[in-house]
Specification:
Number of domains: 3
Shape: flat
CATH topology of the largest domain: Rossmann fold
Largest sheet: 8 strands, mixed
Distance between the termini: 23 Å
Strand content: 5-15%
Number of helices: 22
Helix content: 55-70%
CATH superfamily of the largest domain: P-loop containing nucleotide triphosphate hydrolases
Radius of gyration: 26 Å
């Protein structure tokens, strides 16, 4: 995400690093480059102008002009102002008030609202809450069914019917949630292809009657300034408490994210960063600014690792490493643990300094799938003891996994080398060994 903007800003900062001192004229030239970078990223014109003005005002001060490391000072100022632009701090969901807490999602059709509702339910469930999903979009074909399918995947109850009126659906859902002991109700409202009075009236009626603790507007980050205009229209007609930016992983420019808070005055509360149901993150302005500036995001990377981390499996891996019993089954487990954390290029982009170094390097996700297919085509005995895999077994495994015998040979050779490495790690002893393994986060 934000690749274009990050690249432009990195180029600007790289030129700065060549100067031991900066003149006021040089600072002005840098500010012009930053302003152009923001405008090319589809950031709102007024927002870009004000941002650059704020940075320049601080950058021409004595702190920068007389600094021995002017580039670092300018980057520090840009980072601080970007955090402020994005909202300065995390804005959590409001869970105060009587139960069940009601959260209503609104937005245009195609903004990813229904999927966002399911992602939010999964996120809240992982935090210990007991959500219920309400399918109140009775107009879009199969919208109710879509939410029910998503709810089944994440183990969350879904209520609603295309044959009922939205107000009746929500009323029954709130009563059912109370009876079943759910502490959170997430309402997926109807959207349209464009803003119209009928949609706004329906949302207003639900808002007036049920008084949701949170009204979250879902907007497609990839639409740039159009997303900001949609947000302004919703704010004027029904108002809302926060924003869910969807498809942020596909937004190479960043205009919507950088403009939204400043133009609407509403905080971004969540960002959807992938297609999987677990790919919803609370929006942290400081972490997002760090990503945009190419400085990584270690805190988010650690949280992803912790969410995928299985303590029991780690303890078992540690035991096997000590006894030098690492097998292909363990290798497969570790690959699957890593996949839970998300695409490899996104994970490496969160490591400070590594994202730019890996620029242009392609990660073949298909290769991991091939490796998985090969191991899964083996019998348990073959996974535990690969030495028994002779020529005929290799042909069978290749046929079963849709690969070639050369692919099987390559994997077995690589695994043999890895086992040698594991023996060295095993000699380290303790948890150091399990943490040294590249797939163990």
């Amino acid at each position: 995400m934000f690749d274009s903007l990050t690249d432009r800003l990195q180029d600007v900062f790289k030129r700065l690093r060549g100067h031991a001192k900066l003149s006021e004229k040089q600072v002005q030239e840098v500010m012009r480059e930053i302003r152009l970078a923001l405008l090319e990223a589809d950031v709102n014109f007024k927002v870009a102008k004000e941002f650059v003005s704020q940075v320049q005002e601080r950058a021409v001060g004595q702190e920068v002009l007389q600094s021995l490391t002017p580039a670092q000072q300018v980057i520090k100022i840009v980072n601080e102002e970007m955090v402020e632009l994005l909202g300065s701090k995390e804005n959590a969901v409001n869970f105060s008030g009587k139960l069940p807490v009601t959260i209503m999602l609104i937005g245009l059709q195609g903004s990813g609202k229904t999927t966002a509702a399911a992602k939010l339910a999964r996120h809240l469930k992982s935090k210990g809450r007991s959500p219920m999903l309400v399918a109140a979009d009775v107009y879009r074909p199969a919208a109710v069914e879509q939410l029910k399918v998503l709810g089944e995947k994440i183990g969350v109850e879904v209520t609603g019917s295309a044959n009922q009126k939205p107000l009746d659906i929500v009323e029954k859902a709130v009563k059912a949630a109370l009876k079943a002991g759910h502490d959170t109700v997430i309402i997926d409202t109807a959207g349209r292809l464009h803003i119209d009075s009928e949609m706004m009236q329906e949302i207003s009626q639900i808002k007036k009657r049920f008084k949701p603790q949170e009204i979250l507007l879902t907007v497609d980050a990839m639409t740039g300034q159009d997303a900001v205009n949609v947000a302004l229209a919703f704010k004027e007609q029904v108002d809302f408490d926060g924003i869910v930016l969807t498809k942020l992983d596909g937004d190479a420019r960043g205009g919507a994210a950088l403009s939204m808070r400043a133009v609407t005055g509403k905080p971004i509360k969540f960002a959807s960063v992938g297609e999987k149901l677990e790919d919803l993150e609370p929006f942290y302005p400081d972490r997002m600014a760090s990503r945009i500036l190419g400085m990584g995001d270690m805190l988010s990377l650690i949280e992803k690792a912790q969410s995928a981390y299985d303590e029991n499996k780690a303890a078992e891996l540690e035991r096997k490493l000590r006894k030098q019993q690492f097998t292909l089954e363990d290798f497969l487990d570790q690959m699957q643990e890593l996949k839970k954390m998300g695409p490899l290029d996104q994970l490496l982009g969160m490591v400070p300094g590594l994202g730019q170094k890996m620029k242009g390097v392609s990660f073949d996700e298909g290769q991991m799938k091939r490796v998985e297919a090969i191991i899964q085509s083996m019998t348990r005995d073959e996974r535990v003891n690969p030495n028994i895999i002779g020529a005929s077994r290799r042909k069978r495994i290749a046929a079963g996994s849709g690969t070639t015998t050369q692919d099987v040979n390559r994997l077995l050779q690589q695994f043999k080398e890895m086992q040698k490495l594991m023996k060295q790690f095993g000699k380290l002893g303790g948890r150091k060994a399990s943490r040294a393994f590249p797939f163990q986060m």
